[in-house]
Amino acid sequence: MIVRPSFLWQQQTDGDLKIKDWIRYDDDTPHATMLGIPFARASISASGASEFPNAFRRTWDSFTPYYVDEMIDFSPYRLCDIGDVLLHATDVTKSHAMMEEAMMYVIERYDKSLYTTIGGDHSITAPLVRALKRAHPTKTIGIIQLDTHFDLRDFSQGRTNGTPIRQLVEEDIVKGRHVVNIGPHGFYNAKSLIEAAQHYGVHIIPLKQMRSLGIKQTVAHAFSLLDVDLIYVTVDIDVLDIAYAPGVPAATPGGMRSNELFSLLFEIGQRDITAIDFVCIDPLRDVANMTVKAAAYAYFTFIAAQQKRDME
Amino acid sequence: MIVRPSFLWQQQTDGDLKIKDWIRYDDDTPHATMLGIPFARASISASGASEFPNAFRRTWDSFTPYYVDEMIDFSPYRLCDIGDVLLHATDVTKSHAMMEEAMMYVIERYDKSLYTTIGGDHSITAPLVRALKRAHPTKTIGIIQLDTHFDLRDFSQGRTNGTPIRQLVEEDIVKGRHVVNIGPHGFYNAKSLIEAAQHYGVHIIPLKQMRSLGIKQTVAHAFSLLDVDLIYVTVDIDVLDIAYAPGVPAATPGGMRSNELFSLLFEIGQRDITAIDFVCIDPLRDVANMTVKAAAYAYFTFIAAQQKRDME
Amino acid sequence: MIVRPSFLWQQQTDGDLKIKDWIRYDDDTPHATMLGIPFARASISASGASEFPNAFRRTWDSFTPYYVDEMIDFSPYRLCDIGDVLLHATDVTKSHAMMEEAMMYVIERYDKSLYTTIGGDHSITAPLVRALKRAHPTKTIGIIQLDTHFDLRDFSQGRTNGTPIRQLVEEDIVKGRHVVNIGPHGFYNAKSLIEAAQHYGVHIIPLKQMRSLGIKQTVAHAFSLLDVDLIYVTVDIDVLDIAYAPGVPAATPGGMRSNELFSLLFEIGQRDITAIDFVCIDPLRDVANMTVKAAAYAYFTFIAAQQKRDME
Amino acid sequence: MIVRPSFLWQQQTDGDLKIKDWIRYDDDTPHATMLGIPFARASISASGASEFPNAFRRTWDSFTPYYVDEMIDFSPYRLCDIGDVLLHATDVTKSHAMMEEAMMYVIERYDKSLYTTIGGDHSITAPLVRALKRAHPTKTIGIIQLDTHFDLRDFSQGRTNGTPIRQLVEEDIVKGRHVVNIGPHGFYNAKSLIEAAQHYGVHIIPLKQMRSLGIKQTVAHAFSLLDVDLIYVTVDIDVLDIAYAPGVPAATPGGMRSNELFSLLFEIGQRDITAIDFVCIDPLRDVANMTVKAAAYAYFTFIAAQQKRDME
Amino acid sequence: MIVRPSFLWQQQTDGDLKIKDWIRYDDDTPHATMLGIPFARASISASGASEFPNAFRRTWDSFTPYYVDEMIDFSPYRLCDIGDVLLHATDVTKSHAMMEEAMMYVIERYDKSLYTTIGGDHSITAPLVRALKRAHPTKTIGIIQLDTHFDLRDFSQGRTNGTPIRQLVEEDIVKGRHVVNIGPHGFYNAKSLIEAAQHYGVHIIPLKQMRSLGIKQTVAHAFSLLDVDLIYVTVDIDVLDIAYAPGVPAATPGGMRSNELFSLLFEIGQRDITAIDFVCIDPLRDVANMTVKAAAYAYFTFIAAQQKRDME
Amino acid sequence: MIVRPSFLWQQQTDGDLKIKDWIRYDDDTPHATMLGIPFARASISASGASEFPNAFRRTWDSFTPYYVDEMIDFSPYRLCDIGDVLLHATDVTKSHAMMEEAMMYVIERYDKSLYTTIGGDHSITAPLVRALKRAHPTKTIGIIQLDTHFDLRDFSQGRTNGTPIRQLVEEDIVKGRHVVNIGPHGFYNAKSLIEAAQHYGVHIIPLKQMRSLGIKQTVAHAFSLLDVDLIYVTVDIDVLDIAYAPGVPAATPGGMRSNELFSLLFEIGQRDITAIDFVCIDPLRDVANMTVKAAAYAYFTFIAAQQKRDME
């Protein structure tokens, strides 16, 4: 970068420390890594979720590393954006393998960090958890899933975004009873999938039940079900109501309000979590960028919670 | 239909039983009929509500007959789409008569079924209830109305969508005290209409009161007021907040959240209901199709509740 | 106006008394004045808030002076639209001075009225309160601020919409401890601004705290902190969640639901308030006009509360 | 209007003479009258064309009475907005009669003026021309129609917006051979309507033919076909391509570019014209207000041409 | 289908013969077949082109089989919708094979017909032409391509929508010199692709050149270059300007106006054509449905031209 | 930048040389500099033109340095993005001074280059040309302006975007007769501004005149009027028709088609030009990003023309 006179600069600023100033690109021992997976080719419905990693990064000039609701300054937290995974344009199987290898590399390279991943469609969760198991073959893994759907479809149409949980359970990487899905609602899971959930022993906490339990109690209950070594959290933004998140491939009414999702993640984030992903945000059909911003808000709520936990 | 080789088909599917697969078109003894009324010519404000019956049908490839929140499989429920009413393009009075005759036919032809109607603007409720009274002249009819507005305007501008309740009360088809309107809020009913409500004895439960009572209690209270033989439910989707339902002709802030509407309908749907209509959804000014989807969600929540009641 | 035959008119109507019929333009002793400030040039981010005063006026054909939730008829209330302030197209300092002089004139001319102002960006609050202080130099002034942001930035970039509270506190027009900000949330105030709030003694009630206290208790608590003679309320509509208010320059997730804002204003409006402003609504980026309508709804909720207080 | 200090005003201005400043409301001998007909109830497809008269008026703060392309100052031209016709909310026949009476009044009251009408859907043309014939029973009337459609449907569905030309021809108010329709294109007129055009002798100049003739020659040709006393021009904005005019009820590709429409109207406007209407603009489904603005541009191009003709 | 009384029907109609009434589903010897390929998984950029076959079908209620510009009644033409190809949700190679087999079946089953295909992304052209070659191994095939892009990318990312022409040339199914691409413009083909076009001998007629030649001459020139037995036409709707076709995955300014595309297809359609496809229309990001409608208009212009040719 | 394994990268690519790969950031002797001015505070109407420099940069991943229409490879051309000018958030006068100083620096630092500037609103042209005059005090400067407006307003409202040409002429930096404005049309310049143009001797070539002359002849004519040493080109994107450029603060119908603008710039760009700016693009109100893309297309057309000129 050449030196320029003070009246020339690259980017206007209002003087605050913004996420874009705070994010790291070359930290060897970050508290957390952020890996992008610009991949939407395994989505059953048409999806632009491949655009989300960069859309997420573009929100960083409007967020600061300070969480007002809980007065948490997470600027000491070191978050390192390690870039996007290289993928294949048409070969889904190969792309899934490339993600798995990338995740293996990240786990080995940054072995003390939290692994956060920015999807992408929900099919990415399977290779990511598979890599986690390969890296920790003797550890048991539990999954907290926040989702409108069960993602327990069979593989007749390949490893679509409707299959990741079934993949992991059928491959015995995760036990069915070590999966807790919070948030399903409405008319978006066929009876055959309900039966699959029962067959595999996956725990389903419908949204209505979550609301009657309360969010803290729901999280406590979910963790009580997970007698495991490592916990992986997967957040499908389509768990949100379409009024809050129109920018997902299969947006539905009757979903969570965004503040409920934020509260869930603030509770979950104060626990020991090994990895987390955020999937199925489609910036191309968003309205007023609200879904992209809600996903970013959810992400930083989780990070703030991790910071709080580290402080205590 | 000619036979085609297996690699040619009419419609992609993900293998689930969807509403489009489950709906019936030629059942003589269905649990419920579904009649479309593509009519918006009596709407005071410009309205594309005539587009809703088909917009509703197009949602059927994304809904399944299984309600996750309450784990209700309503696939045994038999719902028969009997088509749309033929209407006149410019003669409102004639169109209203055509609806009334169609409803008479439906009541006689499917005499054991629940009658569901998909509007259309709110003016359709008057001919539909009039037909119900003609078919059951000795029965008393009560109305549960979910609406931002009272619909008690006078007839100086004809039988607009602002008049159906007044029509029915003035014609003594329904007693004013047998109408309970849940959900009015804000600044959308002039004082003269408040006075009309008082004059006719119509029960108004403003949204704020509904929230302080609770939804179950509100429904119980509403039914306690209705000492009648038959109950007709009319759902004006403009009762929803504009953030959840921008696609109505007169969308307002300060309305119900969609989950409140769904809860109301789940409570109401577990009771003996003779007929229900859904009106004033304008797909032409919807955002992200969210209003159309919310109305469909409301409809199937009611059906799921009916199924639950049948099971018990 | 020339006389015309009865079949020619200027505006279609449905016969109800609407705000447009009820508003006054030439009342010398109104209960409240309404002053427009079509000014957005001090906004840090690009803003069309200068379009709001007229956008607000255009909502008046769909609102009536009757508040159904509380059954309050505020048609006896006399609200006088006294027009917009003349401003300079490029000189921000001069425009701020013009606003201050206009407010001085209004306070003197209508000395018994409530002063309501329709912005405009948030920078207008400083000259408005400055005028109030000039008119009442011996009175102490307290501020209730409903806002996502603290507006405590320094003046290195001039008197932007990020600075009004700091201007007033630094000029000793208002004590820091006489400012209560309800609603901040999320990641939109840098740590340096938190520190500024602490330095000046400004009270911050984050949204999460407001929700755990309850709205009535929050308002009671806020007023208990304000041992002052005059209370000025400033409502930055960006306090609302982006799902309810996409039409603000810096819309965020995680904000208030509009019904919470309405409840706050109904509580606040039942107290003695000297002046109120509504700022930062950008009609140019609104979706389905929902933000403009929500701001209008908020405004009339406050007026209804004032009417209720006058009646008691 | 009360007198106010100079720093208070009702409307920001940039100092130019705008249409809103130039328009007259009470001129007894204007060059032209402007009558609004906020009516869309006879539209076959859902239409918000009733919103256009006011949407048209709202463009007046961005247009000036000076036409740069031809350097025509039409500020001396006196255009008088005489308001909107009072209509019935549900009775189409009655509303059409009300329009006819209003037009009769206008013709008598302003007997030397050009009569311009702002619709509304295309059904309004029939009562307007009917009134013209009643006022001038011995005069022959010719119609220049700019339209994608023929509007020659039969009356089985009443006097819809698809019927006005057929009404006038069947009632012998206008001879079929005295109608010239410029602009039909594509796939939007069924063969039966082509046959009707042939039957009645209506002249059809498809868009492709207009383009190969050239605009001046097309207009000259059209006028050569009209051996009549009075000429009525009707402009259905749906003659424009959907890229230029998405805000019409049945927008189509393959239509005119807006500059072609403007050139047509500039040619036509330099001739003796008795009356003109602009119909089928739906502001509710417009994109970026472009259709409303194009219709306003077309209107003022015609006025500029009239001024040019008056000057010569 | 059960018999219903005349006042009940499935679909409102205005009485005209519409495409939806005219289209055939079970004709054994149609003039043309229509095959849908709801496939977008090989698109380099995110694409909802898989939604187009059904979006195309939904336009059929607003088009008639009569082309006004040329007064062509193509209702005698027999067009048979033979449905969509069954595809695999994640395996691109398998899906391409499924398309090829479907096309083989269609060619054999309907051996005298014109084959029209509705995509889908542009990758579908390769398997379709491959099938044509398999069915006619001794015939030479020429391609008229209307496209902004060359589609000559290499296969390092698989058989993407950027590769179909290269696939066909490299497999010697079509000679490079038997490909004429009309319409490339702007900055959307890298120099390496220009070099590839030169290497393979593909003829490029940039849009600017087409405009200086004229459309008839361009088409005559293109056909003069194609000394082949069978001609395949492929229409990538992204050849249109973004103002006319915002609903494509990579919309660009500087493209064709839609009337130019229609004229091209009217010229081409009067020649002997074996097959045609329309690709890369993404209904999910369309504005006012204008791209979908433009593609349908293009399709029927071609059909009208075929009818004209049959008549002569 | 740390070294990463090959499967991790920062940005997906399709392998082509894109503008983002070709652009330079630290070239000392570029053919052209690109300076961003994210400034919209002097715009009379609300404007987000401050967002354009970065919106322009974001288009660089979809454009290549090869212009197909004219087969020009401009990859040898060296274009250096030197960043954005630092501005003041509220002081317009100061910001204009900062731009002028930045331009002085650029002219001195890169004294052999073409100076391109990306606005911002049109007020930026005055300080830019002022700097050019300061750097070359003995040279005469001519301006080619492509604009719907004259920008000859007086300074009663300060140095708004309606004033730059008047500023330069009144300060005698540019003679009125050395300004040629191509493209004004319609009703957007008041008579007083026409008179100002005549007073200063500014040449106005309305769009209609440009079309009758032809683009090459118009450009030749414009240059024949400019007997000057240096030529500055200013492109106000609002010269385009609203169908092509909805994303400008005052979009109008009746403007240029984008291909006309591109042709103008291709002609102009083959001449000796000292500097060029592109102003008044508002990405916040764009539709489908089409205005941003059109402005980028215009920019690169000009660069391609410069390359062609350098080659010859």
Protein architecture, described:
6 copies of one chain form a homohexamer. By secondary structure, the first copy, chain A, is α/β, with parallel strands linked by helices. Chain A has a single domain, classed as Arginase, Chain A, CATH 3.40.800. An 8-stranded parallel β-sheet of chain A has the order 5-2-6-11-10-7-8-9, sandwiched between helices. Chain A has a two-stranded antiparallel sheet with strand order 3-4. In chain A, helix 6 links the parallel strand 8 and strand 9. In chain A, helix 3 crosses helix 4 and helix 9 runs parallel beside helix 10. Chain A starts with 7 loop residues before the first strand and ends with a helix. The model of chain A has no long low-confidence stretch (mean pLDDT 94). At the A-B interface, helix 6 and helix 7 of A face strand 3, helix 9 and helix 10 of B. Strand 5 of chain B pairs antiparallel with strand 1 of chain E.
